[in-house]
Design brief:
Elements lengths: L12 H10 L1 H21 L4 E9 L3 H7 L11 H8 L2 H11 L4 E7 L4 E8 L2 H61 L5 H38 L1 H7 L1 E5 L12 H26 L14 E6 L13 H4 L4 H16 L7 E5 L7 H13 L5 E5 L7 H5 L7 H6 L9 E3 L6 E4 L8 H5 L2 H12 L3 E5 L8 H6 L4 E7 L5 H13 L4 E9 L18 H9 L9 E2 L6 E3 L2 E3 L34
Parallel strand pairs: 5-12, 6-10, 6-11, 7-9, 7-10, 11-12
Antiparallel strand pairs: 1-3, 1-4, 2-3, 8-9, 8-13, 14-15
Helix pairs in contact: 1-2, 2-9, 5-6, 6-7, 6-8, 11-12
């Protein structure tokens, strides 16, 4: 019965909207926080002006001429490199030197058009314009100087190459020069032979010398071109194509835009926070969160008119309230569930403490007795009994006294002193030495069978399932089990474990009663005839002030109820009737104890 994760792909939009509606404080808090911060930031920020200068990046004719012939200078057209140059320490240092401060300037560009934009921002329009133009001009000057330095470096490299070619030519012509010198000094007899050698050697060296001479001429021409275009290289590398102009209006975002942006961001953060909290919170919120077991009904939490009121007997004292009508719906659902089935004993339990089992037991018992069912409400929570607090009677004597001390049931059963009810209650009595062994004993089982034989329905308020084993032992001995769960407290995991444990011992889990659900304002919860409704709590409290004693009291007499063949009946010598009808004659000694006020609801 695990609750599905909030971020499950199977959840629909309506499920997310339901979660956001339920977790609205988590949505509202980030929304208001971000919107407030956006408003405060917009109102308190100083005016800010921004202006933009445009720079075109281009290559000079000299750079084009040398780009394919030398690796010494490579003109980079990569936009990232150009932006890095614009942000370099060289450019920034020169700007600071000229302005006396480090201005706020952003550089961006378009690689397709070889354009850089320099956006300067400052407290005034004039300062913003000055910052943008200064940074753009310094960048252009830096680029031009880099281009000039690169050309000079290339010229130097070419001149070194010319020197190498000269030396190589001299080296190649060395043997030829030697022969020519010998030919010039030789006699007439030797000259023909030397002349023939010179011609042969000159023919052999002609190709190599021609290559050297061709390279020499090409490099010499390149050097001449670079020297002629050095000024053009300076001016053609980069140039300002659009100077920055003073803006007429501040560039600060308007308040309306910041509020809208803050609202959108706040809603996103709030929705994320709400979904995260929902995902971490595994507690049950509504009946839709319960799967794998029927839900008999959902009892809404009390409204403001019943704030601080003990609603352990809402069906008795606040009959027109939403809480009372919730339990009446549970009673109706239970009656439908019991159609065609013989169920005379019902166990009310919960997964853990303070989840509403005692409140459910008392209200359901009263609701069943109000429609002519003879009901016995017995407290079998021998560890932390609460039924006697609900009805304002002593916890002893009770069930344990019947088995441990042989006290007759006619000394234990207490009839509710209200003409609308056919209900008696039996407190726990003295705590047995070992409650777990006590409720698992054959004697206790026999006691339950005796109670079943004398009433239409026996409702048992037991301990919770998970902390102790008492409820599991009793669940095997009754006809049906109802599990009470409290919205916002009981987790889906605990409820699943409790139901699984009950079913493992063979208990018939009839369903879950979910209490404390947030009331739907569209829900019909008004009584008929002008009584009840949302104001019924105020009306009832106003009437209570006129009473001499609370209504929810118990007849505590020497023989308050007698277990006989005819059912639970009044057992005094005046033949006082019990749950079969009639009123108590009051011939015996009677003590009336009011309910304790301001007790916590449920156990």
């Amino acid at each position: 019965m695990p609750q599905p994760a909030v971020f499950d792909d199977e959840l629909e939009l309506t499920d997310y909207l339901r979660i956001l509606r339920r977790r609205w404080p988590w949505v509202l808090l980030p929304f208001l926080t971000v919107v407030g911060m956006a408003a405060a930031f917009t109102v308190n920020q100083a005016p800010r002006y921004c202006s933009t200068a445009q720079v075109l990046i281009a290559d000079s004719q000299a750079q084009v001429a040398i780009q394919g012939d030398s690796n010494v200078f490579v003109a980079s057209r990569d936009l990232a490199n150009e932006i890095n140059v614009a942000y370099s320490d060289t450019v920034r240092g020169e700007v600071i030197s000229q302005l006396g401060l480090d201005p706020e300037v952003g550089v961006s560009g378009d690689a397709d058009s070889d354009v850089l934009w320099f956006e300067g921002c400052g407290p005034t329009a004039e300062q913003a314009t000055l910052y943008a133009n200064t940074w753009a001009n310094v960048y252009v000057a830096t680029k031009q100087q880099q281009a000039a330095d690169s050309i000079q470096s290339a010229v130097g490299g070419f001149q070194d190459r010319l020197t190498e070619l000269r030396l190589r030519r001299q080296e190649v012509r060395g043997p030829l020069d030697t022969l020519e010198d010998r030919l010039a000094s030789a006699g007439e007899v030797a000259q023909p032979g030397l002349r023939a050698q010179v011609e042969r050697l000159r023919a052999d060296l002609a190709v190599e010398l021609g290559l050297i001479d061709a390279q020499f001429e090409t490099i010499a021409s390149t050097i001449t071109l670079l020297e002629l275009d050095s000024e053009l290289a300076r001016t053609g590398t980069a140039r300002v194509t659009q100077i920055a102009a003073p803006p007429s209006d501040p560039s600060n975002a308007p308040l309306s835009r910041n509020l809208i942006l803050g609202g959108v961001i706040g809603l996103i953060l709030g929705a994320a926070a709400a979904l995260l909290v929902e995902n971490l919170d595994r507690s049950i919120k509504t009946a839709d969160d319960i799967v794998g077991v029927p839900v008999l009904g959902s009892v809404p939490r009390p409204g403001r008119d019943l704030a601080g009121v003990d609603l352990s007997l809402a069906t008795m004292n606040y009959t027109g309230s939403l809480v009372a009508e919730g339990y009446q719906k549970v009673r109706t659902a239970l009656e439908f569930a019991l159609l065609g089935r013989k169920i005379t004993s019902l166990l009310i339990t919960s997964p853990d403490q303070a989840e509403g089992k005692t409140t459910t037991s008392a209200n359901l018992a009263w609701a069943m007795s109000a429609v002519d069912h003879r009901v016995v409400l017995a407290d079998v929570d021998f560890r932390r009994p609460r039924i006697h607090d609900v009805f304002g009677c002593p916890p002893e004597p009770g069930l344990s006294d019947n088995l441990l001390h042989g006290t007759a049931l006619n000394k234990l059963a207490l009839r509710v002193d209200d003409e609308r009810s056919n209900m008696v209650i039996i407190p726990t009595g003295a705590q047995p030495p070992s409650p777990g062994d006590f409720v698992a004993s054959p004697a206790f089982s026999g006691l339950l069978r005796n109670l079943e034989a004398e009433a239409d329905l026996v409702i048992l308020d037991s301990p919770p399932v998970l902390p102790v084993s008492d409820a599991l032992s009793i669940a095997r001995q009754v006809d049906g089990v109802i599990v009470a769960a409290r919205a916002g407290k009981t987790s889906t995991g605990d409820l699943a474990k409790a139901v699984e444990s009950l079913r493992a011992v063979g208990a018939d889990v009839l369903g879950v009663c979910l209490i404390g659900v947030k009331a739907d304002h569209n829900q019909y919860g008004y009584g008929y005839g002008g009584s009840g409704g949302r104001n019924s709590g105020k009306t009832r409290r106003r009437r209570d002030r006129t009473r001499t004693a609370p209504k929810e009291i118990i007849d505590v007499t020497a023989d308050a109820a007698t277990v006989g063949a005819g059912g639970l009946t009044g057992g005094t010598e005046d033949n006082q009737p019990g749950v079969e009808g009639g009123t108590a004659s009051g011939t015996g000694r009677r003590r009336r104890r009011g309910r304790k006020r301001n007790e916590p609801v449920g156990s």
